[in-house]
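Final report, closing paragraph on structural work. Over the funding period we assembled a curated collection of sequence-structure pairs, and we close with a single example.
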Amino acid sequence: MIASNSSRSARAFSSRTHQNHAADSAAHCGSSSNSGVRSTPRELYRAQGFPDNYVIDRGHDGRKLSNKAQVMMVGNSVSPWPMAALIRANMLEDKDDQMEEAA
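Its predicted structure, as stored:
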């Protein structure tokens, strides 16, 4: 019986430790180091290639977004520069295909 109680305690401790680690990871989202210095949401958007006039502090409905929400959104964003490069590459490919069809 003692072994089963201790294994339950170990599982509960492990579960709590995992939950605490997950919460810590979410709290440090955007962290640039373990020293507690964090990048601001604006810095993260700049690093992704978004211009400074890109609105990041308000939602589509005008409601103010928390810093955490802003960081979560930049992590799920599509940066404009790689997207523009993909569009250009596809346009060139389409143009080449059209030239081949015409020949």
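Residues 2-78 form one domain. The chain has one domain: 2-78. We thank the funder for supporting this effort.
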